[in-house]
Amino acid sequence: MSNPVTRQYHELVDTISTAFREGQLKTISAINAGLVFTYWQIGQHIVEYEQKGKAQATYGKQLLKQLSTDLKLKHGKGFSISNLQRFRQFYMQNSNYATVSHNLSWSHHVELLKIDNSTERSFYTQQCIHANWSIRELKRQKDSGLFLRLAASKDREQVLALATQQALVNKPEDVQRDSYVFEFLGLPEKDNYSEKDLENALCHHLEQFLLELGKGFTFVGRQYRITLNNTHYKVDLVFYHRILRCFVLIDLKINDVKHHDIGQMNMYMGYFAAEENIESDNPPIGIILSKDKDELLVEYATYGMDTNLFVQKYQLYLPNEEELRREVEATLMEQSHDE
């Protein structure tokens, strides 16, 4: 009997495999959507019962406890008091089910429910949907205060706009923020480390680094070599941004940025614009990541230079969330009163 291993047979195997994988994804998606709707319905039943006035009169705070006891006897441990509280809270925050995203799992919704501020919660919801964040990514961005870090230097309109944006980076200026947080590297703040150590650590944790940079970044290479008049230079890290359609060049500095560092980055950008860009590419972006930043020096050193050149700070520890939160809330409150 002849062996049926032909090109057509391989195509058949690939076609079946693709159909199977797509079917698995659709099934998982359908199960997730079904669970989310079921939990929303449970929350609705609890709230509607309470609103009839019976809950307060009959059980008071004991309602969920009694429900948990009775439902666990019927259906098992999935009806803990904490789960019933989440179902109720989920319905309270999303009384119109049409506004609930079908693209997020129940685990995503549980993490989002932990955010009290509606503007902040909306921001993380949008980013989960459009950047396809996993639960782990969502937790990390929440813990690092991404919304607060982005919002801290913006006015009220911009803060509110963050909650409806579909991507973290839509224009070159969006790469700017108060600071980038590299707590995932595990480098103690006071230890001595070199720029090479920092680069190695970032490349070793590339997934988390890309997440911190924002949506749309793809890694091109490290120590990217360019040659001008027989002199070799190396850009620490090179990325390409799919949304902005441009190269993003990053140089790492563990000390203060000097004026010649800025001039060197400007040269790199000029080289990429002339030698690496293709017709459909936009002008490159240059980012110098530094532990410290002298604002006045940067202002003078970049005078008249390409507006796509940015000097940004990084930190190896999580920001002070309470201070950032107070700053953002003050911005929202102050400008709200002015209106």
Automatic annotation (TrEMBL):
PANTHER family: NUCLEASE YHCG-RELATED, UNCHARACTERIZED PROTEIN YHCG-RELATED. Residues 16-149 form the YhcG N-terminal domain. It comes from the Bacteria. The keyword Cytoplasm does not apply. This is Predicted nuclease of restriction endonuclease-like (RecB) superfamily, DUF1016 family. Residues 175-328 form the YhcG PDDEXK nuclease domain. Keywords: Endonuclease, Hydrolase, Nuclease.
